[in-house]
Model the fold of this input.
Amino acid sequence: MDSTTTGAPVLRLRGIRKTFGPKVAIDAMDLEVTAGEVHALCGENGAGKSTLMNILVGIHQPDSGEITVRGRPERIDGPAGASRLGIGMVHQHFTLVPSMTVAENIYLGRQPRRWGLLADRRAMRRAAGELLERYGFPLDPDQKVGELAVGQRQRVEIVKALAFDAEILILDEPTAVLTPAEVDELMDVIAGLRERGRTVLFITHKLREVKAVADRVTVIRHGLSVGTRDTEGLAESEIAGLMVGRSVFMADRRQTTAGAFDGAPALLELDAVSCENAEGRRTLDEVALTIRPGEILGIAGIEGNGQTELAEAVTGLRRVTGGRVLLDGRDLTSATPRERREAGTAFIPEDRLDRGLSPEMSVAENLGASNYRRAGLVRRGMVSQSALRAYASGRITEFDIRGAQPDTPVGTLSGGNMQKVVVARELAREPALLVVAQPTRGVDIGASEFVHRQILAAAGRGTAVLLISSELSEVLALSDRIGVMLQGRLVEVIDTAEATETRLGLAMSGATGDGTGGPGTDDAGGTTSHAGTGTERKAAS
Amino acid sequence: MTTTPTTSTTGPGLAPKPPGPQGPAGPTESARRIREIWVSVRKPLFSVALTLVLGFGIVLLVSDQPLHAYEQLFVANFSTPANFGNLLMRSAPLLLIALGIVFSFRAGVFNVGGEGQLYVGAVAAAATGLALPGLPGPLLITACVAAGVVAGALLAWIPAILKVTWGVDEVVITLMLNFIAILFTSYLVANPLRDPEAYGATSRMLPEQSWLPAIPGLPTGNIGFVIALLLVPAAWLLLFRTVWGADLRAAGTNLRFAETVGVRGRREIILSMLLSGALAGVAGAVYVLGTGHRFEQNFSPEFGLIALTVALLARLHPVGVLLTSLFYAAMLNGAAYMQIATNVPRSLVSLLTGLLVLLMTVEVRRRRRRGQAKEVSA
Done:
């Protein structure tokens, strides 16, 4: 990272303020982006990131404040105006037409014309091909966008923004929709853009990405910029602290627990468990694993490699076609979800709105579900409303579920607070086994930290935890041992002390790497190893 | 029509409340309850009021005595004890079937077979009454109602078991079973159960000790309505105050959530359908024992279908069902009085009920959108 050239700011915001009715979205925002740098903009959900971006591309007008582009004060009156100023935007949700080709999408609405009327398709295809080549994107201009993978579509979106000489490219949470491998490739793309002299403003709330690719980072909180820092030598916990306004707990298990469980009897044991989907294909292929009381087994892997099936096989929500599931020595292979819960299994599912909650029902009823009798809320056959309300209020306080009253429909809470409801309900069961899938997806930093603490506390009380996550950093930070899922198989289970992002990344992608990097060379968040996996993947494909 | 209940699961325990910054202390318990109830009833009340106003406008156009017509439509129901008794007995089957619909729809099972379940309940009650003429009154009544319960539940069990075993759509099956049940009971009453001395397809009269006793002071009303009335709080308690009710509603609002937290979804589906069919069967028994005193072919003016509207307008809430069934019964009976006394045709009632459904539906959709907006801004 040598490009911290402190030149003149190409883009400068001073005291930008924007309100929507009584709600202040942005309050006195300052931002300075230097030409040729990759600048990350970080903040929790609702901090004002998206509003700021919409102001930069002219979708919203600020109530007050000044925008300076290349030293000249400007008024950006719309996306076309932004484009004239050389500002291009890649939205989080793609704006491509799936039935059109790559070239057509790039030039949509701006096709080269022949005789001022007919679209010059040949010129368009040639220009699109040149653009794709210039940025090193191996895409066919004639291919239909609908046939492309998500990561490829995003490149089309990037090229579309660059096609009209955007000098400043804004990426709005570009990694939200990508697989880990695609994220690595995107990081390379961004680095490549910087080499070609473009300025990139990169919005994210993922700290790993900030460290990986940005030169500087501006953190915003509650509509205010709280600081701009060089990323060189900046710890992730510092960025997180700026985002939430206090110091943040970053879990790290590996020093404390190495070897702590050797010799203990297994609480959960899977013996060659297999599942098949409707077409008879194996979605879970002879998975064998054990978890001991108090141990956290992390399962890493690119999504769709059998993680969902694994969680459902353990919790009884999916029929197992082969193998055995043993809990504390009891064979639960054919037990129903209810029987398994009664035997001590709790489950925090990957999608809280799908399996985790009933959004239309109240917070109290979502907390109470399956816990009514256990929590002593049933009096003479009836659920005591005062007891239920008191119980819910207790959990709301204990788990810091914000914006919630016992009667609030749970679907109106924010993602992080909904997740806390799920966590509160499941942990109230004092489970022997906790199955957790994607516990912090779509959850802000404060809530993530809270959920992580709860998982660690449960393990501390002796709960065996099966933690499934596609966030490598999460798996690395919380687990005692780590397994990797690939095409329905559990391909590698290693102690966290021996795990590095490189080694896990190789296992996730199916490359039979020798685990270079060695133990202990890289800290919980992982900093630079992505580049290695990214390039190796590209070379392989 | 079958899609609306998913949006209208609001009971008093669930009334939406703006998550305002009122702190954990909040308002007092009783004030809170009153506010909740008001929030959940104000929109239906407004819809009813608007329907009546618009309906009055129509009456103004077609009649030279509009006030008299409206008076007959609503006030005549309460003008004599006999009229009032008729009103109660008209509402009883609606109320019972609609309570059953509440259970099935709350469980996410769309039982639209109330009509058929009503018929088999009625014919079973009649057959039992005719078969056991020697029993004393209370025993015979109990036996007849029990027969109605079993028949209705059995008919509802068929679509339930088909649904949980093979995923067969219950709407189609319950709807088709209506025809089968009506035609089957027609066959029964035209052949084995037929009263040879009567003109038309009716059964013989039931023994007099099986007739439901009248409500004191209301010669035309009988304790069939009281039975229905007592089932309202029972249904409410079962649905909103028991673990089983909570499980049932969990299954109805999000079946995948329900199975994740250990609710036995298949069991809830079957139980809710059994209960639903049983209540429609009681409605049939109450009609035979209290009003008809025998089984008549095609005796129902589509009680089963009207009850569907009654339940949906009440937002699948037992107490609401009591009010809407009385309202519908008042409209149905009042229409007859109105047609006799004035030149306004009774089909005005179809128009008014259609309007009411329309207004309530408009209102439901608007609420859903606001719910989403809240989520976005949160």
Notes: The two ends of chain A are 27 Å apart (CA to CA).
